[in-house]
Write a structure and sequence with these properties.
This protein has helices at about 5-15, 25-35, 45-55, 65-80, 85-95, 100-115, 210-215, 220-235; strands spanning about 95, 125-130, 135-145, 155-170, 170-175, 180-185, 190-195, 200, 205. It is of the alpha+beta class. Helix 1 (about 5-15) runs antiparallel to helix 2 (about 25-35) and helix 2 (about 25-35) runs antiparallel to helix 3 (about 45-55).
């Protein structure tokens, strides 16, 4: 790399340090002069004049080696800093699972039996945050290790996961259940909070609802509340709940 090109790269690096010139056009002119081919430059004396002019403009302090060293350290520090989470990532961090009610667990258990009728050792269904493009009720294999030190067979159990989670917004609780979203506004005198789990509070009393409580409460939209009542009545007739 020739001297003018090296000086140009150096000046560009120095300019990134944030010194800022009083007049950007002057800095641009100096950079253009520094980029001239050797045959067009007037010699080392002119390059030195450009270097001194940069110092007078406040764009360079000390010598070039010091400026480059400082530039390298700042870039290394910038690369070592953790990346700020995106909006989507921040919203994901606000999600909290909403525990399942008794009749919801029975629905999940019945669905799991249809999905994988051959398995045994099913665990109690539990709420989970499932991806949008996945099944809303899933069966997850859990390796519990060997039955004993003398047994070579693996002990498998099976978790039943149902999509049931919530997120607090300024307008209230957004409850996501089986792929659909339901909004529960803040009741008068109360607020929904979700620091560690979804709760309803007035500052003195705290209430942690199950998903079944939400779907059958007065805060729930009437059509959904009526549908929930029908589902529970069917389960009751079958002796499930």
């Amino acid at each position: 790399m020739n001297k003018p090109q090296y000086l140009l790269n150096t000046l560009l690096a120095i300019n990134e340090l944030g010194g800022g010139a009083p007049d950007n056009s002057d800095l641009l002119r100096l950079l253009q002069l520094a980029a001239m081919p050797p045959e067009e430059a007037e010699g080392k004396s002119q390059i030195r004049a450009h270097y001194d002019a940069l110092k007078q403009l406040g764009c360079l302090h000390g010598n070039i080696n010091i400026a480059l060293s400082l530039h390298k350290k700042r870039h290394a520090l910038k690369d070592s800093l953790p990346r700020a989470p995106s909006l989507t990532e921040r919203l994901v961090l606000l999600r909290r699972t909403v525990p399942l009610g008794d009749w919801q667990k029975q629905v999940a258990y019945a669905a799991a039996r249809k999905l994988r009728p051959q398995i045994k050792n099913r665990n109690t269904p539990k709420a989970s945050i499932l991806p949008n493009n996945s099944r809303l009720i899933q069966v997850e294999d859990i390796n519990e290790g060997r039955y004993s030190s003398n047994c070579q067979y693996t002990h498998w159990t099976y978790d039943i996961l149902m999509d049931s989670w919530g997120m607090i917004t300024h307008s209230g609780l957004r409850y996501h259940y089986l792929g659909k979203t339901y909004l529960f506004s803040h009741p008068k005198g109360y607020r929904w909070v979700g620091k560690t789990k979804i709760e309803l509070t007035n500052g003195v009393r705290w209430y942690s609802p199950h998903g079944a409580d939400l779907l059958s409460s007065d805060l729930c939209p009437r059509p959904l509340r009526e549908l929930t009542a029908k589902v529970r009545e069917q389960l009751r007739k079958q002796g499930v709940v």
